[in-house]
Amino acid sequence: MSDTLHTCSPLVLGLAFFLAAALYASVGHGGASAYLAVMGLLGMAPVEMKPIALTLNIVVSLLAFIAFARTGHFRPRLCWPLVAASMPAALLGGWLQSPEPVFKLILAAALSVGAWRLASGCNVEKPARLAPRWPTLLLLGLTIGFLSGLIGIGGGIFLTPLLVLWRWCPAKPAAAISAAFICANSLAGLGGFLATGRAIPPLAWLLLPVVLAGGWLGSRWGSHRAGSPALGRALAAVLVLAAAKFAAF
Cβ-count burial of 202 within 10 angstroms (0-12 exposed, 13-18 middle, 19+ buried)? Predict the structure, then answer.
């Protein structure tokens, strides 16, 4: 573990992870891109960052899924083809090394465009179109799953804006679908990482209660109180943070 991490105040570290979990869970995400950004700023090695982010992602996205599913927003027919294709791809991506910096800059640019469109209210409140055919869902799940496992995230930052902007479903069902997708992908990505013989660093278990508290708070707000415009703005903020992370690291 880096010297920078040792000198960081536990209160500051805990607050950063709590706020990240709360914001991301409000839109059905687990927060991995934010956790990676914080750990990158602290100078942690990627071999430590990836399993910590995936472990915390699993518990926060599971909380978000439960909250959104209980309020009736889950769309299983749209979700399961995505999950079925993404999990083996995420397993492979988790086993491989992270992509080159140029690739991350391309992802940052794509996320920035998505954030701008969501912040401007584009398609957030428009009626949903008919769900796409299975081959389209399988291809999308395969692509996002591989990218997610490769980078060490759950994939919600790619899936949720696409579901909303392509009008396959409204914001809250998109959050519910993404939460299930993220949890499954994070499990597969972590499995791929552990298959290399490495272990989950102890810091993950120390941060677990913090992100559980933040994830519960954020998922309750997103699933019960937030309207579609508010969720669109929250998702835009999440995408901006994720884009900044990819651009910086």
Answer: exposed
